[in-house]
Amino acid sequence: MRGASLQSRRRFLAGSAIVAAGAWWPCRAFAADAVKIGLILPLTGPFASTGRQTEAAVRLYMQKNGDTVAGRKVELIVRDDTGLAPETTKRIAQDLIVQEKIAILAGFGLTPLAFATAPVATEAKVAMVVMCAGTSVIPQRSPFIVRSGFTIPQTTAPIADWAAKSKIRKVVTMVTDFAPGAESEKTFLKRFVDAGGTVSESLRTPLRNPDYAPFLQRAKDAKPDALFVFVPSGEGTAVLKQFAERGLKEAGISLIGPGDVLDDDILEAIGRPALGMITSHHYSAAHPSPENKAYVDGFMKANNGMRPNFMSVGGYDGTHLIYEALKKTGGATDGEKLVEAMKGMAWTSPRGPMSIDPATRDVVQNVYIRKCELVDGKPYNVEFDKVENFKDPGV
Ligand code: PHB
Known about the structure:
The protein is of the alpha/beta class. It has two domains: 2-150 and 291-361, 3-Layer(aba) Sandwich (Rossmann fold); 153-281 and 368-390, Rossmann fold, CATH 3.40.50.2300. 40% of the residues lie in helices and 24% in strands. The protein contains twelve helices and 15 strands. The strands form two sheets. Strands 7, 8, 9, 10, 11, 12, 13, 14 and 15 form a nine-stranded mixed sheet that branches. Strands 2-3-1-4-5-6 form a six-stranded mixed sheet, with helices on both faces. A hairpin with a 2-residue loop joins strand 14 (363-375) and strand 15. Helix 3 packs parallel to helix 4 (111-124). The longest helix is centred in the first third of the chain and has 20 residues, at 2-21. It starts with a helix and ends in a 5-residue tail after the last strand. The site of P-hydroxybenzoic acid has 9 residues, from loops.
């Protein structure tokens, strides 16, 4: 034991010299006794709700399943990357690997942050569980990435197909101007237009400090049957406030989109303007299953009544993946072994059945069509149809 720790200290010092020389990864030679998970999330800034939800879910999983797996203690190290600076996320990941000797990277609230960190996982050969970010290409950026959340085309395509089959003929799209928004717009456009629909205008709102009012006015003036919206989790309150104030609903325009805009974290705050809206998504707090009931009850009890949203299940299931992979490897944390163990894994999540596609390391799951309705006096996205075992269709 003493010998081992002396040896790892020597290795660490040698590693530090390498860090100074610019190549930083070899110092992660020996794992400490505990398996450390480095969870990087936006815990402050405009996307703090994603961080808050995901961290709460990871902690809930650990609380329910204990902090020892395959005879090794699991330790969580949480870092706030503020959500907006990819270089910060990358630097935090490097620090966690070099200084804290974490064995697994996890979290990643937004696509640019996952993109920036992917080369770090590849160089250091560390498994990277993307719990939140949704752009299709993310797992292709590193063979060490496995995704536990969702993909943007996966959650967008079903609402495009649903809209084409309903009475909706003419749509205006409004998306946030960054990779996931562009991908959501492209997915909707392709599927809806291929099925005979018309998209008369495509609007892009800024990622930083957006003011939705002028865009919604423009959408109203175009007189579509529906407005398709993708905004990142947390932004829905501002969109729906303006949607109501500008009278789009009264003008006969319905709001559709993937479920990010009617995220469970903010649905009660949005209130009445959300009622009647149809969205497609992989998770609703109202999903009717015993697993989800237990999840929602446990989550709310542990977090002062906070309702779990779709980001939270990415965290919960990502932690499940890590635990089950560690069991399979007998506690070994070698990145290649962990990723291999995660491939093809299947289980029942609070969201329903899900698995990891062994070919793409991406999530396969049901995507539900939901209508926002009052349940016991509170708004919920109530599922009424689904696309089963849906793989990322790409863009
Ligand atoms: C992303 O950056 O990939 C992202 C962020 C928030 C969402 C969806 C996707 O709600």
